[in-house]
Structure prediction request, 340 residues.
Amino acid sequence: MKSGVLLDLIVVIVQTTLALAQSTETPQVAAIPDTTRPSGRAGHCLVYDDQLKMVLLLNGYQPPYQPEQSEIWGWNGAGWNLLVKNGAPSRVLGGAAYDSRRKRVVEFGGIGMKGYSDLKGDTWEWDGRAWHLMPDTSVGTRDHHAMVYDESRGVTVMYGGQNSARQFDTNTWEWNGIAWKKIVAPGPGNRAHHAMAYDAKRKRVVLFGGFGDGVDEYFGDTWEWDGISWRQIVTSGPPPRARHRMAFDAKLGKVILFGGTGVKTTPGPGFNFLGDTWFWDGRAWNEAKVSGPTARSMHAMAYDAHRQKIVLFGGGAGGRERLNDTWEWDGNEWRKIAYD
Prediction:
């Protein structure tokens, strides 16, 4: 199985210091002075921290450099700040979600510094002050999976991906802050590089697309998880794809999908990069006829509940190119953030 991704194995030396301030109610993170923004990257994660009121960025391919330890960057709507430089071991194509009940960033799996020989099966949590390695290793190794936090049930949900033997995992896993629980339920089957988002309006986890174990086998199906069973909703909608991303726009009450890679229209190497935007309202998919970010894959998206905007950062656009642009979706259109 081809992974469709390249891993750079050079170490970057980051010469900054860490400053964290703490209050009795909300952790106050003192940003390390930095006039830049995150380096171009793909295969990273974005999550929204409702205590800090920031979108947090973790990990990702960052050629020509790769940090030894994971950074955390924070986006507050005005600029990016490097909040933490050392934490959980660096990785790409892992999963992350924000547990709003416990106020923790949850991170699991991914590809480590040495490639597939360094596939991760560890669970880490960040409480706004420090990273904590959790003891449960029952899931095993995993990459190319997807994770979201189910607010109504208070658990982080994970589905899909591949292990060190490049086998697919078709079980649904849920993390309650103490242990992973395996839920064996018929559902989306073999797939990786799919996308998931939690629909808070309808209290459902929504999954779309991904790729299977065949050559150019891309999926275009939509599934929903209600905590008990998976249900396939529709087969029509966005063209089949993988390496796309989704986020729930709470103001609109809809899941937003952007980009990814689809079936190639002409023979040859490389990917067919997509740059379309779609809405899911629980009944049907509709394409938003808007201009926006350039076509890309393995970017990251998260909804900023404080500012009511979806934030998109980075991604890959062919070869070793890694993007470091920031975009925001306000419910009607995409806007590229202009940096000084």
